[in-house]
């Protein structure tokens, strides 16, 4: 067959995969069946573990269009294989969004495409429901998503809903009236049941999956071998341990499935009302919804069972499940471009772009509003796992593997142990053949050496440290849903912080206002609720320009809006449901001053007050609202003062944006200077503007007018200055991180100068450091993209109150604005989201250089935060992300260690969640991560040495055709190894962060040096004991009548042996060599446990771990007590010599390890001549390169210009602007 072109599914997406087609091959199936029978089922296991081998062994390549099986491989660094069976579905058409019936060419007025032209005709011609099938559709399911064959791309593709390639006008004109029953059934065949099904696997299924794990298969093989070799007690102990391990694992896995199932299924099935094509309303289960259905949102609210776009009415929604933000959001209906073509431009609908009009699955609709009896309708655009909630659940069900050097190195280490086992395997066979040992014994003993070298308890031992760390984190209020990430947190060397609610307090306080009159700033005023301002347009703007609403009588909404509204002390009243049902949306919300604010109310009686309110009541009605948009950075309302004919437009938002939309003659000349003064001091500044609308604008015209028509030619009114205070613990935490050489970066949606000010206040940027602002401009009017470099003015110099923060461990370079300004200083880059987007697109070569010293990233959108985390990871940083969960979900998931400070359900997207909303959890998590990582290294090294020590012992005993006994193996593995390992992992984390990080992998010079040196020491002392015992004057091959001890002991021992030796010692276990090696090796396990159980600077010392100390001395007592029936009596002087050997061994081991810690790295560097070696991490290598780059950092008032597109992508040139 010719090699066909490589095909992909989910092309250019995060879950992109290669796809190959295969057909079942009968002769290959027969061969595999024979192989499975001949191998005793082992081949079947191998094919179960390796899906690509399974498919290739049983199938032959075929064209994708006609294949029976597909083989998928991810295109990321993991290259994971999956296989899926292709199924066939009868259908009337290939596209669910198109009319499947070729007979019907006409579409009913405003209806979505359907089988019959009307529902009445459909019901009349009932026999037409069973139309002949015209197509057979091929599809397969992978990770809860169906992929259908697409002829146009000649590959499999996901069937999209109405969230892609559907224009806003089409949503209103073609899809808004609902589907007929026939079209609904046709679409349901493609989209399936609308549910996010988290199936809890049965106990049996989970058991089979767990038992077929390679680790347990190896244990099963070992147990069978040990039983064959008559090690019954030891085999029984391992079986009991394995059963306990399997049961606990099953319990944990099932518990996680049940928790996720309960979270998803809590409100997943509800009864909903949908509109059918003939204007009828039908009540169905939410599981029957398909894209194109028009559902009615009940007035008392509901949990959304799908993603839907609002067609009419408004909804107040709690989106905490998705965003982590508990503040209710007002959703308004999607404008219809075809009704008012001049007002609203037609564009393709997107749930992200039009999220103000989209109700997301899983979010809670608290209440709805409708007018003149019009029902609140929403069009279903996505269902099931395609919804925002479904995608979140999929990311939990099918997480990406954790790529960490420790785990990769662990497999290499195990592989090296297998190689060592191979040598032992060959040695055993050769030695046994030379000594004419029976074939059965040769097979058992040679296989036994493999089970000794590769420890079965290794995975459990490795997990112990992580489990204990997880428990310690839980005690300090940090919850973890991804335990494997704890180790990775030990490597974090950069942490990104959100600003508002993370570094600073969540709420804002009103510092003051600064009004503008006659294009001049007045003096700042502390209060906005004074009598003189009561009827001013400035206060009217503060009273009306917000998205506040009343829920059960309580005012709620954005915290900034709340603070602003509370500052003026006004009252907000909303129309009741009865009023809105009877009237049009003329004045749904009214605001007015409270009685205490009215100047006349101070001395008036109650009766006079009533007359005053009737005659001179001052109220403002909010006629229309243009909600706040993070893209536009502003919001606007149209309002009318009661009794006045003309309406007013009020606008608030980012000062730079508001000023650009105002008449220039109303904006003060010193606007930029005043704004800069406030933002440099860290204030949050909001600008207000006003415009008196023309009298010809009627109520109905206002409802349809475009936003752009209103938001222009405004009068600039002034500034509101809000204070966002730093959290008390922020400076101290950042100081701790900097002392530990951990970089800190601020990623915020706030103003850049405000962010720089906060960065200086909290110590992220030191007062003497330079801040370089990168202002990137996209290509325009034939000009290439460019970056203008500005140096932000340095604030006040260091004061005594400034925290003393050490510079991070990255080479620092001389930065100077002029030749006179020559001082060693650090520099930081700052940029906003727009500049970051331009740099990513047009200056790819600059991205690594900018993120190396980028400290402040302002006005960043949620997806840009994720892109920044990826850019940092691309230069080999281990990135942590700490945010409040509101806009940080993507970045929290992408980072190596994401910590959410929100306890809401959005934290399910983050590996870690802190119960207390404080960044003090970050150093705690890193300390625990470092402790867990070092514990993993200790345990791995100890388990490796345990295997090698036992391997040496058994190999030496095999040379005299002996072995360790059943009880000896049992004691070593249970009493020493398991007890010591599981208590060794209990050492708590060190009390403070240090500048040094633990190594990230096992394959590193110091670690290998440590392990190899201890192996040589153990080998030397065991060999010494083995050969020295043979040189003793009393030595002879041991028999039950041997009397090497003194006479009294010899008699007692001899009589005891005569009484017990009823069975011949087949394995020749009782001998002087066995006893000597058992004592020496048993103490060697304890010696290496001490040597490898390092404390400072990452863990507490061993003597503070009481459980470990108790276990350790218990083992010493048991070994010294000579309590084992399989040992023989040796003379006291030999016991003393064994003690001397053990003490010498301990002394040499500890001394070697200490020497290795102190000078091992220097020795290895000099030995291999790598003192000047290039750093492995890309960011360190880049920092060294930039030290000798005369063009970096860019000089002030210069421009970096992208080259024309015809030249190489991503290249740039520096142009100095005079």
Automatic annotation (TrEMBL):
Mode of membrane association: Multi-pass membrane protein
Segments forming a coiled coil: none
Catalytic activity: putrescine(out) + ATP + H2O = putrescine(in) + ADP + phosphate + H(+)
GO molecular function: ABC-type putrescine transporter activity; ATP binding; ATP hydrolysis activity; ATPase-coupled monoatomic cation transmembrane transporter activity; metal ion binding; P-type ion transporter activity
Coarse class of the protein's main subcellular location: membrane
Residues of the P5B-type ATPase N-terminal domain: 13-150
Family: Belongs to the cation transport ATPase (P-type) (TC 3.A.3) family. Type V subfamily.
Biological role stated in the UniProt entry: ATP-driven pump involved in endocytosis-dependent polyamine transport. Uses ATP as an energy source to transfer polyamine precursor putrescine from the endosomal compartment to the cytosol.
PANTHER family given in the database record: CATION-TRANSPORTING ATPASE-RELATED (PTHR45630), POLYAMINE-TRANSPORTING ATPASE 13A3 (PTHR45630:SF12)
Name of protein: Polyamine-transporting ATPase 13A3
